Amino acid sequence: MTLPTYGYYMKYLFRSNTRRRSPRIRVFAKRAKIGTVYLLVSERNPRLFKIGFTERATQKRRRELEHSSGKRLTIGHTVSQPWAFTTEQRLHWIYRGRMFGTVPELGTEWFRLLPWESMRVVRWRINLIAKLTKWEAKMKLSWKKGFEIRTYSNPKVFPNKLEPNRPARNSDTTEAP
């Protein structure tokens, strides 16, 4: 028995005509709006996160979600680019495919880290899918000229893992390494 391929699932994911916009990248479609894919992390449960898309300011969207859900949220990572809606839909497809990572009581955009995952893996996936979306749009001549992917990572969620107690190297010493 063989497993279905990536393309097998993609044709069912993007089949619906009821969406307000299509996540499919079309050839020569230069009018894609610039949006932001964001990663919101719950302050109460740091293993709970939301991947979303907005064309507005991410801070406003965070405040709306905090007001409606009653949870304190932190913006962990954002990626601004053309075709951001496509990037978000592909990330949802990846995370909905996991058996125990979804949180149905909170909605379809909320996910839970699996025991062996970390937020760094989620950030890496977001950046990877953004780069793949850019590559596909460029191959179809649909990437706007002069636009690049802009990212922001919150240092509270992704602290720098440098050793704080390590002494700085002194270039004045003549010791051999």
Description:
- Helix content is 31%, strand content 19%.
- By secondary structure, the chain is α+β, with helices and mostly antiparallel strands.
- The chain has a domain of 122 residues.
- A five-stranded antiparallel beta sheet has the order 4-2-1-3-5, sandwiched between helices.
- It is globular and about 45 Å long.
- The N terminus and C terminus are likely disordered.
Which key features would you list for this structure?
globular; five-stranded antiparallel β-sheet; alpha+beta; 19% strand; 5 strands; disordered C terminus; single chain; disordered N terminus; 177 residues
Helix-strand layout with pairing:
Blueprint (H helix, E strand, L loop, with lengths): L5 H8 L20 E9 L5 E7 L3 H12 L3 E10 L1 H13 L13 E3 L6 H21 L10 E4 L24
Helix pairs in contact: 3-4
Number of helices: 4
What average pLDDT do the residues reach? 79
Helix/strand-derived category reads: alpha+beta
State the end-to-end CA separation: 58 Å
Estimate the global geometry from the Cα principal axes. Answer: globular
Q: Which percent range describes the beta-strand content?
A: 15-25%
Summed up:
This protein has 177 residues and is α+β, with helices and mostly antiparallel strands.
